Protein: Apolipoprotein N-acyltransferase
Amino acid sequence: MKTTVSFSNLLEPKACCILLLLSGLMLPLGFAPFHITPCLFVSLALFYWILLGSKQSSFGLGFLYGLCFFGLSMNWLYRALHTLFETVTVALFLTMLLIMYLSLFTALVSLFFNLLKKNLHQILLPILFASLWTVSEMIRSCFMGGFPWMLLGYAQVDTLLALTIPYIGIYGAGFLACIISASIAQLNTLTLKFCFLMLICIPGVILNSSVPEELALSVAVIQPNQSTENKWDQESFVTTLKNIEAKIDQSLGRDLIVLPETAISVAVQYLHPYIKKLEAKAIAHHSALLLGIPVATKNSKNTSYANALYAVGKATGQHLKHHLVLFGEYIPQYLTRFTQWFPLSTADFFPGGVQQKLVRAHQIPFVSLICFELAFEDMIRSQLPEGQWIVSISDDALFGKTIQPYQQLQIAQARSLQTGRYQIVANNSGLSSVITPHGQIVSSLPHDTEGVLNASIEPIKSSTFWVTWGNTPVYCILIVFFAWVVFRTLNSNGYISNSGSFSVVSAWSFLGGGFKNRSKGIVAITNHIIKRKSCK
Structure:
């Protein structure tokens, strides 16, 4: 079938590369903290437009686009790694290595798009582009532990596509964003493109802007704004404990009092009198107190520590962090041999289980997330629909004054939309917030400030479509589409007869049990190809 003609055929290779660089740098502007939503659609449209007609290496074009996208959006990695390793060379090397790894996914999207587009009608090419991008995000989110950051669906909380997130999730919203972007590139007139783009970029939260004034539970979120150095400094520890206790005293009487990740840096087992005192105060004022604090576990050989959300007062249970941060919280066994070559300051935590008993406040269960776990939607869905709101605690002081905390808050907004739950975000260094089930931030503390955020939330028992079905609809669409594309490609290249009998016989012979049957299948396929070429 004929594919669409791209004006990128008329551009010089250098001009294509420059345009690709600009489009890659434009994509992060569609995410937090910039929120320039049209940039996301224009960037993807340009990338798609270049891929349609460029005669250069498709893998190289995709890799270059990824370097620009991830290089600008993930620059905060250098700040964190430099703090951990205390050396510029190692931090820069690891940052570049991770950015290049992430860029491989956009490179593969470009490569497979170039391979499969030849046999499809132009009306189906946007679906092919969106399908490949979505699959790349899915693989990136789980491969080698997963890195589900900067997914296109997160940025849709600011668009009309926010309305689809409770139904088809982050991947589904990103899939639609890709289709829309590619379709914009194929529209014939500039006026149509502009109108279509402006329509999509209307903030979706406008349609869901009402928030009840009187809610069931009052909340106090404590934001200590401790520096990374002071948190783990013995001399500053006593002052830190006094400051935390003072802020808890100030918040007593609220239904929920939430502290961020490792707000108290010494394990709960070694602070028994202090924790008991806080618990007695919380019980006396009917408050549920949720502490970010390590938990120690002893065995015959040594003591292990887990990063935990620990409940006292009118709350019970604990949640141990499952998804640990590489280098920051653990070092894989196969990398320990390299630690002798560079200084590394890291905590050695052990991961909690995948399935844990839900923490309860006032006898109501809720979803517990610590830092990086917010990005893993399976971690959230495993605690639903039982969990009636979300508590997400983190400490982003390691990233300093970068864009990372804003990106994390946008992910939190998307999670509230997906699950239809209120969310309490407690962050040590700023942007502690309360988010509605519609993804709205109703109250928030500024970045790099100390304070207490007072707000209200409502427990919710109902389930969104995504909570019930997860990503199953998106998986089904992708599987059916790719199966059809593969069949179409094989058929157009002459590997399948009109009746389809060759496909069945050859596949059965090739996949049949035993070397002999597979050999027959290979011979049959080879003879068929030779016969068709001789006829031509």
Remarks:
- Residues 7-208 form one domain.
- The chain has three domains: 7-208, 217-332+341-462, 494-535.
- The longest helix spans residues 88-116.
- DSSP finds 17 helices and 14 strands in the chain.
